[in-house]
Amino acid sequence: MVIEAEHYFTSKATDKTKWTVIPDLGRTLSGLTLMPYTEQTNGTLLTYKMILNTQSDSVKLRIIFNSTFPFKNGGVSLTAAFDGEKRGTLEYQ
Q: How far apart are CA 49 and CA 67, in angstroms?
């Protein structure tokens, strides 16, 4: 299953940022980024809603980043949760 980046369920940005769709970026339809790059992003989030057809003890989640984004010093921190329960954190430096 592939979920298009721009087809999120809810989003949260800061007072100084907004989620921006970048057409034709990514594996399929588009990509998303917070603009402008120079502002803090603490507390921002995207929520995706899905229904899985089978019961499983594990789920494989693949997130694709575009390597041309200008990551600021300190990198990126991403947390994945299912049903609101934190399952793992990825830090990309």
A: 26
Contact 37, 70 (CB under 8 A): yes
Positions of E strands within 1-93: 10-12, 18-23, 30-35, 45-47, 76-82, 85-92
Query: What is the distance between the alpha carbons of residues 34 and 36, in angstroms, rounded to a whole number?
Result: 6
Which pLDDT tens digit goes with each residue over 20-45?
A: 999 988 777 888 888 988 888 888 98
Give residue limits of the domains in the chain. 10-92
Residue 47 structure tokens: 């929520």
Residues contacting residue 24 through CB under 8 Å, at least 6 positions apart: 30
Give, in order, the Cα–Cα distances in Å from 15 to each of 31, 33, 34, 35.
21, 15, 12, 11
- Residues paired with 76 in a beta bridge: 92
pTM for the whole thing? 0.72
